[in-house]
Amino acid sequence: MRRRTSCALTVLLTPAVLAAAAACTGPERPAPGETAQALADGLARQDLSALTLVSDTSALPEQHLAEVVEPLLAAAEETGAAPSVEVAEVVEAETAEDEPPRAAVTLTWSWPLAPGHTWDYTTGTELVWAPPPEDSEEAGTWEVQWQHDLVAPDLAGGERLELESLQPDRGDLLDIHGEPLVTERDVWRIGIDKTYLEPPRYAEQAEALAELVGLDPAAYADRVASAGEKAYVLAITIRQDEATSGVSFTADDARAIDGVNVLADTMELAPTSSFARSVLGRAGEATAEIIEQSDGAVEQGDVVGISGLQRQYDAALTGSEGLAVHVVDGDGEVVRDAYRVEAVDGADVATTFEPDLQILAEEVLSDVEPASAIVAVRPSTGEVLTAASGPGGEGWSTATLGQYAPGSTFKVATALSLMRAGVFPEDEVTCPTSVTVDGRTYENVPGYPQDATGAVSLRTAFAHSCNTAMIGEGAEVRQADLAAAAVDLGLGAASSVGAPAFLGEVPTEASATGHAEALIGQGAVLASPLGMATVAASVAAGERVEPVLVRPVEDDGGTDDGAADDGGTDDGGTDDGAADDGGTGASPSASASPDGSDSSEAASDAPEPAGSAGGLTQTEAADLHDLMGAVVAEGSASALADVPGVSGAKTGTAQYGDGSRQHAWMLAIADDLAVAVFVEDGEYGSTTAGPLMGRFLTGR
């Protein structure tokens, strides 16, 4: 049965349509192009009321079109664009005199379904001329032969279209062995399920759970009270693996509380709850801020990088969504795909973390109250094997972003500048009990051995960390040459770490007292634990080492050393001004920025201080290694003498603030490992950092 609907034809004539109309055979029959254009416009608007439609089926567009394309329309609206239907071709057929004129119409469709996804296709139909009845004043019309596949290719009666977003698998952060560091791990989500309780018990049970998991009881009880009567109110998420959960309670402890529901789930997590947390960051549901900044690319519920490397390399790790337009039958079952672009899984991002060493370093620092760090670099490759920050940093990446006076560990650079000035390890230097520069007196550390004063070799002065010898001999070394020596050891040099990092900063100009302080690693000299580990690594390697923590990402989603995220917290930074060792006052010093992106950008964007023309030579490095060996054999790091593989070390103590507080440092070279240990508030490098270094090196 042929069904026909007749409607008044109202078409806005474009120049192209007017031209087509001029080519018609007579005033009683306009060119079919007018109707073809009206059909295209009507389909784009989902309004076919201006056309005469004829169908051999019982379903006309008014009953079918909106339902078929509704999911696609909703998607197009989210993109801010509208579907497009254009007339590609109109071909009039040759017909016999007793047959009505016919014209074949080809339409091109374009559906903007999502960013990066536009479904383009063609469909077609036939127009048949219906002349007016004899003796009628009505005009004839081109009738549109309606069929379901005019809307989408091969669409049949009873079928409709549905849209599905195909989600990619998020890439992993890998360790140095290519194994996943951050990957899906099993977790427990623990919270109050209000359907398990009567209202009078909400507050009591919520407070009991909060006390168990370490939340504010009153605040959590308020959250439970304000939630819906059938709500599940999450309190905490913990790892199912109790050994790595990082909490003092178990899921069974929570289950023992009436009203608690423990749900199994998975999350993207590192090997342990603390593993390089301030560097790796975390991934989770997008925050309102991230959604707003994404310009529609990120929606509520999407898993994205929130902080650290997860945020910095989010584009590479995330991959790209796919999209499918399904053809479904009347029961909602998928019959076939009309359009499909598979999701592209996220790329893995390779770090240089050695998991066992990182976990060991964090265990060593676990009971250190002040901010602290252990950084280990492989001299032969520059790979950063550990970048551990202790809990005292409160989430700040002390290891990579800290800016502290390095104290006597900087004397490695001072010794290099002295050797370049002609003073070598066996040469005699003078180590008095004090030295005065421009009216300011500098002394050696309390307890400095008396037998290492007076006329001694540079090796002895270095081994016992004589401040006065370094200041006295260094008076003839230009500040620019001292800065160049530091750069040749990697301190303050530009480097593609692959993560936000501050290596160091040494001024190229200074006053007499500023120069004296710089020679002993105080005043305006700043370094991070990563920077000082790089110094030790350069000595061991015989050339300047460029540390790398993330290998370059092939995809454009990451950058070698961008600073998309700070990797720390807003309150993790500390003031760390430094004064001279044994001086009478305190010199101000830059503090660690609470925004790691700022400090990283400063480190990467600032022009690199010039090193020496030839850079660090193997001969110079060998002499420096010899000096560091003397620190172990006879000096302030003698506690490491029995640790296997240790061939050199250097201790350091740096006053800061008002001069009453001290940073404690130690560097060590052990086989193909260069390590820096730092504690923000300590006694001396040998007594505070030294035991931590010993525990780390013996446990490796």
Structure, described:
With 700 residues, this protein is of the alpha+beta class. Helices cover 28% and strands 25% of the residues. It has 21 helices and 28 strands. Strands 1-2-6-5-4-3 form a 6-stranded mixed sheet, with helices on one face. Strands 18-17-28-27-26-25 form a 6-stranded antiparallel sheet, sandwiched between helices. α4 crosses α5. The chain is elongated and about 130 Å long. It starts with a strand and ends with a helix.
Features:
about 700 residues, six-stranded mixed beta sheet, six-stranded antiparallel beta sheet, 21 helices, elongated
Runs with pLDDT <50, length 5+? 1-27, 555-606
Total count of strands: 28
C-alpha termini separation: 86 Å
Main sheet: strands, sense, barrel: 6 strands, mixed
Shape: elongated
Report the C-alpha radius of gyration, rounded: 37 Å
Classify the beta-strand content into a percent band: 15-25%
Give the proportion of residues in helices: 25-40%
- The averaged pLDDT comes out at 87
Strand order of the largest sheet: 1-2-6-5-4-3
Class of secondary structure makeup: alpha+beta
Query: If helices are DSSP runs of H or I spanning 4 or more residues, what is the number of helices?
Result: 21
